[in-house]
Batch of 3 targets.
Target 1
Amino acid sequence: PIVHALGATHPLALAPVTAPPASVDGFVREFLHNLNFELGVSLSASSVNDRYLALAQTVRDYLMARWLDDQRRLSEIKPKTVCYLSAEYLLGRQLDNNLLAARLTDVATEALAACGVSLEELREIEVEPGLGNGGLGRLAACFIDSLATMSVPSIGYGIRYEYGIFRQTFVDGQQVEQPDSWLRLGSPWEFPHPEAAQTISFGGHTEKYVDDDGVERSRWIPGWNVLAVPYNYMVPGYHNGRVNTLRLWRAVATSSFDLRVFNSGDYEEAVRAQTYAENISKVLYPEDSTPQGKELRLQQQYFFVAASISDFLENVLGDGVELEKLPSRVIFQLNDTHPVIAVPELMRVLLDERRLDWDDAWAITQQCFAYTCHTLLPEALEVWSVDLLGRLLPRHLEIIYRINEEFLEAVRERFGDDEMRIRNMSIIGEHPYRSVRMAYLATVAGAKVNGVAELHSQLLRDKVLPDFDEFYPGKFTNVTNGVTPRRFIRLANPDLASLITEALGAGWTIDLERLRGLEAYAEDPEFRAKFAAVKASNKRRLSDVLHVRDGFDVSEDHMLDVMVKRLHEYKRQMLKVLHIVTEYEGIASGRVAASAVQPRTFVFGAKAAPGYIMAKRIIHLINAVGKVVNEDPRVEGRLKVLFPPNYNVTLAERLIPAADLSEQISLAGKEASGTGNMKFALNGALTVGTDDGANVEIRQLVGDDNFFLFGMTEPEVEALWAKGYRPADFYQQDDDLRRAIDLIASGAFSDGDRSVFEPIVSNLLYDDRFMVLADYSSYIAAQAQVDAAYADQDAWTRSAILNIARCGFFSSDRSMRDYIDRIWHTPPVL
Ligand code: Z2T
């Protein structure tokens, strides 16, 4: 061992770690100490970044004693622990969240003021860690917040990407990606532990041998390895003194790796080899819900799960635990299929390293995993070619084959030699090439499999994995997603938070069902006026932010209509564009008087995967439409289209509290859940949405009168497909639709160049996989209802309050309770 811990009996080992005094004076001293002695600058000579770093370190120091204490306590209590395995954590800024959790906001504000420093200014320069793409990564961040707040022993495991999700810029209206060098100005929230690195192996081959007991076994002779260095992040619970751990792994070249090359005397080659190894944690893959099948991606996946399992077994579990008891000490939650290679990895450890026999190892493994599926799109279901997987992880492929053999044997026993069914259920697919179906592997290995909203879980059982549902009764369950009220109400919408606390007391932050109490206040004109004032002030705040950021202004008397989410055809930003173009065309053609139009500002925020050409074209079109609409004097400023670049968690926290209308318009049956939909409703925006994902549950809770429903249901979508969908028919039959599409096709948004958006137009007319045209008329009708409803501001406000009052269910604390009750069985440790 590189480091020797003090023996537990040494008097110093027992000395408690004490936090600095939580007084203004204490905070000032600590802040100046960090500025002077950690950053090496005087207050007068310090830059804003220096002061931010010193502040972050100060906040960190306050949490540290709790964190160390929790780790000591848990290593004694040895509770069952949730290990959340996720390739993504979209954390958002840390400073404000940690101040809130540690009750330090007021003390810090005063202390900094005493030093002549503005907390607000420091807040604004924090660069958010964008270690995720969208919903899935943000969900992981909400879940670890809730677990800490609920005192549930848990560790988040993931990858410390050096570059997170790209920074989006627009050049002539088109997306251009910039690397996200989020670590450049320092990373005060992390603690690297190079001495605790794990060695992770890849490649090579396997061989058979007979062990000392005469048992034939397989062993892996790897070809190369890298070091996984843990970086710890503190995850503080809200006002409960708990601090959990998020452990992200960074790839570093091993010395043995380059020694070989060094010995050959090729220095440059050695340095190149180092770069190869360190590439593993270099960059987040920017595809949301469409995996790319790249070798480096599989390396990332194995890298972080192998390090995490080994870390748990060696450093968290403690010595002398019988492996049979492992399921009573850990549940590895698989956040989609990205970490599923953990299944054969745990098997490999139990078989090859711990020398268990197959049946025991498999019985343990099957109790230690649970799998969450986040999609229904067939192209998003991850598969790895046998070829690639066998080259990178030969022993794991052997293990997967054996798992599959035994599984198919059991299927045969149960259903007879139904070869069709066997082929359909096999973990190994044969077409178009031999591949491992990761969702099937996860389903076979997981104690439970869950979808992320009621509708999604139902479709998962009925459409994606029906044979498995039949084979494994009781394995499938639902846990509807949720969002953390700390970040998305308390921090993002402080004025609303105060208003709620004024009405209901402070308990709602950790018991969101208490928002029900607002139903009565919805009937109180005085409360409605206060709520409307909060909305208006959030709009002004947003306008200030967008003005500085992008030079945009948001007018207070415009309805703020917001569609923010990844750009994907199934989410149907195109449908929103057609609505805008329809409104514009009415005015431009003179058929509609501008004065008759409800003033609206349409806000988009969306990143497209860099290789997703159609998504990028749609971004281009939105910007192009925005430019024309915003500049046409005939519109009289009553329609505005804003598309601030680089939508991220930080911008979401500004946009959502200001929104009047939330656009959740995916084709029914395609959006697994959505979580933005919940954030908007909880901030008092009304939803215009399809019967999809968690929209279904939102509408059930808020009631039809407080939700603008439109579009086909999932069974109607299915029926239309079955009968043969011809989008051009809708184009022919609907005058508004035809005029909108014709206007785009005419080059009106591309300086007369008809070729620019032609691929979008022909895709809509002749393919339209996500049935934009089929839902168009229903969407336009729903938007007319929106306009009518908005005209009665007081009624709208009442609806908005009712949305908040009835959406307490969507707290991620509730999601965590459901996981605990239905899947994990890990009680809080108080
Ligand atoms: C993702 O963000 C989601 C699903 C994925 O499927 C992959 C990614 Cl990166 C493989 C989203 C869903 O699209 C969304 O409906 C859901 O709310 C979110 O995950 C969290 O469950």
Target 2
Amino acid sequence: MLAVVPPPVTVRAPSKINLHLGIGDQRSDGYHEISTVFQALSLSDDVTVAASEEPGVDVQGEGTGTIPRNSDNLAWRAVRLLAEHVGRPEDESGVRVMIRKEIPVAGGMAGGSADAAAVLLGLSALWDLDVTREDLGTLAGKLGSDVPFALSGGTALGTGRGDQLVPVLSRHTFHWVLAFDNRGLSTPKVYGELDRLRAVGDPPRVGSYDPLVEALASGDPRQLALLLGNDLQAAAVSLRSNLRRTLRAGVEAGALAGVVSGSGPTCAFLCTDGDSAVEVAAQLAGAGVCRTVRVAHGPVHGARIVDGEDSP
Ligand code: C5P
């Protein structure tokens, strides 16, 4: 009798930026207590999971030379975690993961987290599992602080490690220009640098997210621009001083405001509308302050199946 091989499943998972990122104290588990407002952006990775006799991870696209292909890869850890969770660890040896990357690697836009979220959703369809989105969210939190948001998308307030999510009302679409740096930044190093800066001085703190949440509800990009803020920015700039120039160049190119995304080094620039974003991107690309620029909009959906089985 022939075994039925399920068709491959492709999932699109979004990048994120932090419109507001407030970092609190370091906890006993080494993580910092944070309060953040995430927005999912149209810049996304497509991840295909397929039954295969050659298990492993393939990566194409943005910055792929630097991604681990072995069991350190977060996407592969997602395969293992889901297989263990549903009691079929033997199945992991029959899975191939193919990642088409647009999200910069180690760029502060949660690209690895997006890929892991995509694997959880894609495999639950490939294996026809009876797991809810809520279960997937719990597994996502075990893989990394940003993975639950990559599943849920939209605009959300994140607390705890950033994994406790509540949706936030966001009216209208916002238009962004993203400036990628030449090399990535390590998230633990950027948190460590913030701890160091706080031990020797008093870097600025973003304060409450309430005004920003109101600006999102109003949908006015000019109002939102005044309220973007990231406690990790000072640390990212301290490790990568060229980011100061990039941030200035985006505003000089006509953006309403710029902010380092998460732990950086990607800088995100809010623009008045889509046309302005295209102009800002062209001018910023010509300024020679970054490796490459992209235009994106948000909020967009969390990880979702774009080809293959229906979503669970
Ligand atoms: O959760 P994730 O693996 O993405 O976190 C990577 C690193 O970033 C952690 O090991 C920790 O050093 C730092 N981090 C933190 N506090 C957070 C999130 C991440 O200190 N809330």
Target 3
Amino acid sequence: SQSCPDGAKRRVCYYNDRLIAGVDYGEDHVMVPRRVDMAHALIRSYGLLGDMARLRTRPATDAEISRFHDGRYVGLLRNLTPEGFGAGGEVARRARGCNVGAVSTDGRSVDNPPVAGLWDYCQRYAGGSLAAARALASGEADVAVNWSGGMHHACRDRASGFCYVNDIVLAIDELLGHFRRVLYVDIDVHHGDGVETAFVESNRVMTVSFHQRTEGFFPERRGLLEHVGEGDGRHRAVNVPMKKGMDDDGYRRLFEPIMSKVMAVFQPEAIVMQCGGDSLSGDRLGHQNLSIDGHARCVGFMRSFNTPLLLLGGGGYTINHVAACWCYETAVAIGKEIDDNIPSHCYDDYYRSQGYKLRYPVDKSLKNDNTETYVTRTKCAVLRNLCELEA
Ligand code: V1P
Ligand code: CA
Ligand code: ZN
């Protein structure tokens, strides 16, 4: 890899599994696993594969997944097929009890459908995150990447927000076997509730989520400023709620001072970053207005601390935007500048609307509800909470 702006090189390892691209949440669903294959095709066409070691690994085992998830829930996911679910009866009833196939309150969308090949899918994305964690733990890599991971809503015994198995919790648990303190940073537009809950009482894991917190936005009632962790984990859960229309400038004015303070007070030995692309401008679910540069600047900022770094995917529902973003962030991880013109490759057509450029323009007409006063007050409130850890 090339030299980085901070003068240091990074050894990057990268996970990709083509079979994940074929997973189908359903025609009307917003989660499109093909976006990971689109990112991979861009990464390949930019020649970035030559700058990284490939992680070739096996799917996560039932035992590995059961380190966090409930045995009965694992049993249900393992045996669930669309046919078995469709036949109704006991299987469908149990699945709905775990929030799989349950019709949401709007009566139309099913957030967590019983997709074909569900268990294989979960094992593959979780296997990638575990292998990435192991590559950091062994010292083989400085940065490890799995864009198919980052499923931050999954709970111990139920699915939530398109997430069935929480690969992030599994990866953090793996890192805790080798590092004293692990920091989790989540820039997906949604609150990282599954990860926060799993470690809410831990003094060895700090979770930080930046997210949209507006009336009715998923997941409701989570991620408020005053949610700071419990028991031994008090002040080790950090929440940065934002209103609609957040732009690069406001995001940076929150992200950099908060993360600098987090690094100073918590002094993690490893960092896990969920890079959900639904905080980008023009997302189908999120209402923020970040450019690819603004999003990737957060990745570059965390990388600059020179602490073992695990990069994961997450949300991202305008698939050309998210694929471009994750390709760009792979280049940031390596420390290589890449051209804005997208090389000709198999998914070319998807980038026509952005003029075949990696960077697309943000929405200049979108109102930013995050006033300067709001940003300053939020930043100060978070920094005040973090000061409690200094004593
Ligand atoms: O708001 C909900 C339902 C209503 N409540 C009872 C739950 N679901 C959201 C879920 C968003 C999940 C985001 C996942 C991630 O953080 C990580 C991968 O990005 C939801 C929304 C929405 N507008 O918030 N589901 C859907 N839209 C949906 C749309 C089409 C088809 C299926 C689901
Ligand atoms: Ca978040
Ligand atoms: Zn999201």
